Every structure is written in structure tokens, then in C-alpha cells.
Amino acid sequence: MSSLSKTRLVSPIRGLLTLESIPGVLSLLAGKPAQQTFPITSISINVRSQESPSEEITLKIDSQGGQISEALQYGPTNGHKDLVTWLLTLQKHYHGRSEDPSWMLSVGAGSQDLLYKAFLALSNPGDSVLIEAPVYAGVIPLFVSSGVNMVENWPVGKPYPKYLYTVPYGCNPTGATTNLQRRKEVLALARKYKFSSSRYILCLDDPYYLLYYGPEPRPTSYFALEAQDGHGTGVVIRFDSLSKVVSSGLRIGFVSGPAPILRAMSLHTASANLQPSSLAQSVTYALLQHWGISGLDAHTKYVSQFYRERRDVFEAALKKHLDGLVEYTSPVSGMFLWFKLLIPPPAHDLNGEGDSSELIKTKALENGVLALPGTVFFANGQRSAYVRASFSMLDDEQTDEALRRLGEVVRQARGEI
Predict the structure, then answer these.
(1) What is the pLDDT of residues 90-121, one digit of tens each?
(2) In the predicted model, is pLDDT for residue 347 greater than 80?
(3) Does 128 share its domain with 157?
(4) In this predicted structure, what is the pLDDT of residue 277?
(5) Structural domain includes residue 145
(6) Which of 134, 153, 90 is nearest to 297 (CA)?
(7) In the predicted model, what is the mean pLDDT of the chain?
(8) Among 142, 147, 145, 143, residue whose Cα is nearest residue 126
(9) GO biological process annotations for this chain's record (predicted)?
(10) Domain containing 195 — which CATH number?
(11) Are 277 and 18 in contact (CB under 8 A)?
């Protein structure tokens, strides 16, 4: 645990909230507002019917079973019990992990919130973390602000890292999905070298697990593998998100992993924002309870197919407008395509690769297309000829036009027009 985590105290109020559920107890504990003062009496949610997408089904959160009271009131730091229980069932369904005292599950305000609190719980200034190169740009500021050293290739003689951060399915930015053999090798290395000398932790940021659309079966998750190799659990902290398959605005993510680490994360939550939104959790639970596991499976199958078709349209437009001007590997999960621009290197480095930064940030934007240059996904800000493009939002016609515009500026950079 980090030094900061060791100084966190259990809230004198939140630490006792679970005692309110003891039958017969009359609680004078928490400063909860009286339910009678809430102006909202019920909430109705319309969702598309899975059997007939043109039809809608209304789900209602009201006084039945105290649902509306729970949705509008303070709740447990690590998530409402019903939602946590449902998500535990989900982890057993997808990863074969039954409940036991060694691990737990907590809900957060999106997986980014949970990643931040995990890094707080694990990292001291000066600690080293092993990362991918390129890496999800959203974690770079977190590591920088906490004084953590980000290392991509481990040098001989350097103390082992505290943990490895990786995105194993449909990686942001590369779109890469780690194959099964590499997962086993990474897990074996974590066990062999015991990252941080006494503990070995793999932080798995996995918002695209449910967006797999490859031709082969989805590779087994690290969370499942650690329970299968006969060497015990406690290696993996798994970060899941419903943002990509249900709603990004609900801000619902959940983390599964070693109980001591998740308890430390909950102490950070209790100090920072008390809990994830009760209302967002209630809306999410109403939908998941309505669907059941089979309904969620059907929905994510639809979503995955949607993004596979968007990927195919994007790649077709790439071939149409940038044939011979880019190199890429087709993703099998997620919503990103990472492609290399075949442009000349800077004048002072004739043997190197091109740099996409100026072309993407200036020339492409001036021509009406917006993307991200590869350099922002490297911890050291190194030059990169790569570009990350999201194919999730534009329709077929817009995608074709965006890549036509990009093709123009790439040809200009190559001196072809």
C-alpha cells in the first residue's frame, strides 16, 4: 500500500453505516436528509425492446421495495448491495470467479475514477510502474501528478515495478487485443519476479472486453487465468466499465480484485466523493435486472456487431483514400484504429520515421478533420508517425469524407499534390 493509503482513516460515520441494517436498530447516526423532503417520487426509464427494437419498454423506479428511496439517498461507499451482487454474478458468468473472502467488487463513478483511486492506493512518489508503449493517454496525467516513474522497457538493475498497467482487449489507442499465449506469459512473469518485491499486481483496464468482435473466440481474461493456473489469486485487479455498452453518461464502472487493495480504494472514495451516484446505480440496476445475464449478452452482441461494421467501413475508406499511404493492423475489439502515416521524416533525420503531430494537429484540422497524433500516447512524448482514429461516431458518408480530407493532407506532406 502507498504511504497515503496507510494514513487514511475509516470515516467515523461511513464506517458504521452497515450497522443500520441490523434488525431493530434505530439509527441516529448519519445526517441523511429525510425522504419526505425529496420532490422526486418516481423515475421512469424507456428502453428499447430486444425482441423488437422499434418498440420500447418502460421500467419504473418507485416506492416499491424502497427503490426510489435508495436511488435518492446516500448509499454504501463501494456500491449498492443489489448492484454489487448482480455484478458479482456477472464476473462468475464471464470469468468463472465465484465469491470468496480473498477478493471483492466495488462500484465507482466510471473506471477512470477507480483507476485513479487504485493508483493512489498503490503508488508512492518515486515508485516505478510498467506501462505499454503506446499507452492510454488518460492515465499519463495521473502518473505524472503522483510522481510515478513510467517505464516501457525494464532496464537491468532497476528495482522491480509496483505493478503493470495494461489494456488487454481493444486497447486504447492501438486497438490491439492480447492473445492468450502472451497473457499466460505476462502472468507467469508477474509471479516469477513478484513486482515490487513482495507483491505482484496486474492492473487490467478493460472497458472493451464486451466489445470483442474477432473471428476467433474471445481470449480468456487475466482475471480468469489467475484462478486457473494453480498458483493462487490476488495478482489481478480488473477494471470494468459499462460506459461503452450501456451509457457513458451514467458513469458506472466496477473493479474486482484483492480485498485489501479495494478496501484501501474505498477509503479514498469515502474522503473524496463519499460514494458513486445512488441514482445512476439504481438506473443501471433496473436495466440489468430487466435484462438478466442473457439480455446483457444479447445487447453486447449487438453493440459488438455495430462496431465491427463501423470498423469495416473505416478500413474501406482508408483503402479508398489512403491506399499505400498508411500501415495498420485491423482491430478485433473496441472502437479505435491505429495507423502509421507513410510520410517523410523531419529534414534533420532522414533515416527516421515521419512525425504525425504537425500534420494532424494543424494541417488535418485546417482541412476539417480531427484525430489524435501518436505522440500523445507515449509517456516520454516521443515522435510518432502513428494516428489514433475513433470510428465509433461518424456514419458511413462522414467516415468517407473524413478520410478523403486526411488523404489530401497526407499527399501534400509527401509532395504528391
Answers:
(1) 999 999 999 999 999 999 999 999 999 999 99
(2) no
(3) yes
(4) 97
(5) yes
(6) 90
(7) 93
(8) 147
(9) alpha-amino acid metabolic process
(10) 3.40.640.10
(11) no
Of 177, 176, 166, nearest to 217 by C-alpha is 177
CB 86 within 8 A of CB 254: no
* Grid cell for residue 97: 470467479
Task: Give the CA distances from residue 285 to residues 17, 53, 242, 405, in Å, rounded to whole numbers and listed in that order.
Answer: 21, 21, 12, 43
Residues 211, 109 share a domain? yes
Rounded Cα distance between 242 and 238, Å, is 13
Q: Are 275 and 334 contained in the same domain?
A: no
Task: Give pLDDT tens digits for 278-307.
Answer: 999 999 999 999 999 999 999 999 999 999
pLDDT at 196 over 60: no
Q: How many CB atoms lie within 10 A of CB 15?
A: 13
CA gap 80, 276 in Å, rounded: 9
Q: Are residues 109 and 223 in the same domain?
A: yes
Of the candidates 347, 346, 341, the residue with the CA atom closest to the CA atom of residue 408: 341
Residues 322 and 187 in one domain: no
Question: 285 with 375, same domain?
Answer: no
pLDDT at position 221 is 98
Where a domain ends, among 296, 313, 337?
Answer: 296
Grid cell locating 283:
438506473
Bridge-based pairing state of the strands 236-241 and 202-205: parallel
Helix (H) or strand (E) segment spanning residue 193: helix 180-193
Is 201 within a domain? yes
Give residue-wise pLDDT tens across range 139-170.
Answer: 999 999 989 999 998 888 877 888 999 999 99
Q: Please identify, among 296, 330, 360, the residue that sits at the C-terminal boundary of a domain.
A: 296
Output the pLDDT for position 310: 98
Closest to 43 (Cα-Cα) out of 276, 250, 280:
280
Q: What is the pLDDT of residue 328?
A: 98
- Contact status, residue 114 vs residue 257, Cβ threshold 8 Å: no
Q: How far is CA 47 from each of CA 57, 287, 304, rounded to the nearest angstrom? A: 5, 8, 19
pTM of the model: 0.93
Q: Are residues 101 and 195 in the same domain?
A: yes
Rounded to 5 degrees, φ, ψ at 303 are -65, -45
Range of the domain at 82: 75-296
Q: How many domains does the chain have?
A: 2
Q: Report if residue 211 sits inside a domain.
A: yes
324 and 369 share a domain? yes
Query: What's the one-letter identity of residue 144?
Result: V
Residue 341: CATH number of its domain: 3.90.1150.10
Residue 11 in domain = no
pLDDT at 133: 94
